[in-house]
Write a structure and sequence with these properties.
This protein is of the alpha/beta class and about 220 residues long. About 25% of the residues lie in helices and about 25% in strands. Strands 3-2-1-4-5-7-6 form a 7-stranded mixed sheet, sandwiched between helices.
């Protein structure tokens, strides 16, 4: 008999055992409050949205209510199960997958108009971030955007985090064809004085086609 085990994902350390408390915390903060600085960059018409590290599904649910086609990626089983239960009435597609490779998702060859990485990127070390940026960039449709938040402050006990600069992240995105369209800073939505966030938006430019060009030619 062959037994399969779910591989340990270093960036998820500390989340599973505290899932119930974390879900209550996440759901108590409004989607619009978290993303207030970049809501103007979100698609206004129904679009394909990917929420990587979706947690309780708060953001995925809000975007589904707005009419978007939403895929929520969450590697921590306990968080994913809570999210599926809380937001069961909404058409959110949940996937068990994780950075840096996103092997399951990339195998489906689906492009997205908006990719969210909310409080996720700082869980990856330098080598993982390089792989992750390449994999995330490959999922962004022309004209699509990646919106991410980076946490700065003390690392909670039992968690794995790195202090990652917005500038370095934007430069990394540029190497993979993503142009910076927004960079800002916001205070912590939980009111922690020693924590603040960088908010970054990157875009894959639409390549213009010359008038009269045959776009079907190989």
């Amino acid at each position: 008999m062959t037994t399969t085990t779910t591989p340990f994902v270093p960036g998820t350390a500390g989340y599973g055992p505290n899932a119930a408390a974390l879900v209550a915390q996440y759901e108590n903060i409004g989607f619009a409050d978290v993303h207030r600085d970049v809501l103007h960059l979100f698609p206004q018409r129904p679009s394909r949205v990917l929420d990587i590290g979706a947690g309780s599904g708060r953001d995925a649910a809000a975007l589904a209510r707005a009419g978007h086609q939403v895929v929520a990626v969450e590697p921590t089983a306990a968080l994913r199960q809570h999210g599926q239960r809380i937001h069961a009435a909404l058409p959110v597609e949940w996937i068990d997958d994780h950075l840096p490779a996103l092997a399951v998702l990339r195998g489906s060859h689906r492009p997205f108009d908006l990719v969210l990485l909310t409080a996720v990127w700082m869980h990856l070390d330098a080598q993982e971030r390089e792989t992750a940026m390449r994999c995330v960039a490959a999922l962004v449709a022309p004209g699509g955007r990646v919106v991410m938040s980076l946490r700065h402050g003390p690392v909670p006990e039992g968690r794995r985090m790195f202090d990652v600069s917005a500038q370095a992240t934007a430069e990394q995105g540029a190497r993979h064809g993503l142009a910076e369209v927004y960079s800002g800073r916001r205070e912590d939505t939980q009111g922690r004085a020693d924590v603040h966030w960088s908010v970054l938006a990157l875009e894959r430019p639409v390549v213009a086609t010359a008038p009269g060009a045959d776009v079907t030619k190989n």
